[in-house]
Structure formats: C-alpha cells, structure tokens
Amino acid sequence: MKKILFQPFENYSEKKLLLVGILGTVLGSLIAYLFQARFDGILDVHFVENLEWYYPFLDNSINVISLSLLLFICGKIVNKKTRLIDIFNASLIARFPYYLISFANINGYMGSLSQRLLNFATEKPELLAIEGTDLIVILIFAFISLILLIYYLYLLYKGYQVATNAKGALAIILFILAVLFAEVISKYIIYLIYY
C-alpha cells in the first residue's frame, strides 16, 4: 500500500500509469461535476452554483497539459533524456488527491458557505449568517485541503524526480517555477475560454 500511495511512479509501467491516470482524471472530473467543483487552475478549486457538464473535464485537461508541458521543458533542462510520457503520467496521477476536495460540496454546502462569506465581505456584514459550526467546518475543510495540496505537490515532485532523475537545487527551483507558471497559464487559458 505504501508503494501505491507514495511511490507509484517507481513501481508501475508507463502504460499502466497512463491508463489509471486517464481513468482517474475522468472520474475526478465527473465527481467535480456532480459536486459543482471547478479546478480553474492547477492549484485552485472553487465551488459554483451553475456548472456545465464539460467544465471540469476541460479544466482538468488544461491543467494537466499546461503542467505537463512546463514540467517537460524543465525536465529537459535537468536531463536531456526526460520523456514527455513520464511527465504527463506524473501530472495525471498527482492530481488524484486534489479531486477529493470536490466531496466537500455535498448538497452544495461549501458553495453556499463560500457565497455567504463573499456577501459578508462585500455587502452587508451585519447580515452574516454564519454559525459556529460553519466556522468549524471551514477550519476542517482548510486543514484537509492543505493536506491534499501537499500530497498532490509531493506526488507531482516524486513523478518529476523519477522522470528526470532530478537531483540538486536546480531541479527543485525549476520544478517550483514550472508549477507557478503552470498555475498562471492554466488560469489565463481557462479565463479566456469561459469569460
């Protein structure tokens, strides 16, 4: 079980990782649709009231492709033998934990809570309809989301490390830059498509 959770890139073939990665991304997108979650950036999750069925699929495709391309460029700097399929698999598989955040919006709860908080911040603070249990839920959600984000980035780096045989500070710096630029690029592309 430890190998599956922490070392999937070292123990499974590229074909198996690709198949599982594509199936997991489709399932994660379906779950996002059912719970009205948008992955509008490689590090972002938002809950919305109205969601077309294809939004999560398109969001996740843009996220995976932008992340893969930037990590591949950085991987080629680190090691000329870096293969796109290995980076693509890492980008697919690493996102699995992040898809679990969608479950926080059961019955639209987190979306409604987010909207109430936005209304509080922008319009009439005296009408805040947030109870103590809501605050506890927000704290638990934030903590779990942070753990899932860390696990996502851990898996992504492990996949990048295996794909590039990365060692040293340069590989880490390039990885961080690739993730940050992929966030900006994916958000920009998603914004251009939808808005």
TrEMBL record:
Transmembrane segments: 16-35, 55-75, 96-115, 135-157, 169-194
Molecular function GO terms recorded: hydrolase activity
Keyword annotations from UniProtKB, A to Z: Hydrolase, Membrane, Transmembrane, Transmembrane helix
Protein name: Neutral ceramidase superfamily lipid hydrolase
